[in-house]
UniProtKB/TrEMBL annotation:
Stated name of the protein: Menaquinone-dependent protoporphyrinogen IX oxidase
UniProt-listed SUPFAM superfamilies: Flavoproteins (SSF52218)
Domain of life, per lineage: Bacteria
Cleaved signal peptide residues: none
GO molecular function: electron transfer activity; FMN binding
Domain Flavodoxin: 17-156
InterPro entries: Flavodoxin_CS (IPR001226), Flavodoxin_dom (IPR026816), Flavoprotein-like_sf (IPR029039)
Length: 200
């Protein structure tokens, strides 16, 4: 069994951050989170789940203590990037605390939408161990892939068919910033995740 660190070691903890980013918003959060945790005295391993040849192997085969695994994944049309690697890492390190944050256009105030997203994305076998969070990302229309552009066009058609009175604030912002680049990322939004990583 992988060793775990006792609570009396304070904030000198070992943290692994696995992230999967398509357009940079999730990567930005991963970098900020690394800086914030390192500032508390944590040792942080930052792993790009899309670029690493074997991201899970980096953790499963690592020697020594791993206190916390944090996953950050962008949500694209209901598909959360990096969840597979995060889930495998959590299974490989059963003594580590598990935190996961989705990153998406949706505002954190859309609690029911986010709850359903987390319920769908997090595998049932690890769900009891995972504390889930949500971070607001952004949109970069000029850089969207053909697949994501097609999904966004379908979303726009749907939103335009809704009466104005039935549209949420997220719906209105989607239409307002259509074709543009809009960034809602905020390093202060990471405070609850940092607190959870450091909690006894």
């Amino acid at each position: 069994m992988t060793p775990s660190r006792s609570a009396d070691r304070g904030d000198d903890r070992s943290v692994a951050i696995l992230f999967a980013s398509c357009y940079g918003h999730t990567r930005r959060y991963a970098d900020w989170l690394t800086e914030q945790l390192q500032a508390t005295g944590c040792t942080v391993r930052l792993i790009d789940a899309r670029a690493a040849e074997d991201p899970v192997g980096l953790l499963a085969g690592a020697e020594g203590i791993l206190d916390v695994i944090i996953g950050l994944g962008g949500n694209y049309g209901g598909s959360v990037q990096g969840m597979g690697a995060f889930a495998d890492a959590v299974r490989a390190r059963p003594d580590a605390r598990a935190l996961f944050a989705t990153v998406a256009w949706a505002s954190p105030t859309q609690t029911e939408t986010i709850r359903k997203l987390h319920e769908k994305a997090i595998p049932a076998d690890i769900a009891p161990r995972v504390t889930a969070f949500h971070l607001r990302g952004g949109i970069d229309h000029p850089r969207l892939s053909l697949k994501h552009r097609t999904k966004m066009l379908a979303l726009k058609t749907y939103l335009m068919s809704k009466p104005e009175s039935a549209r949420t604030e997220d719906d209105r912002e989607t239409l307002q910033f259509w074709g543009q680049t809009k960034d809602f990322t905020d390093p202060a939004a990471l405070e609850p995740i940092v607190a959870a990583a450091l909690a006894e």
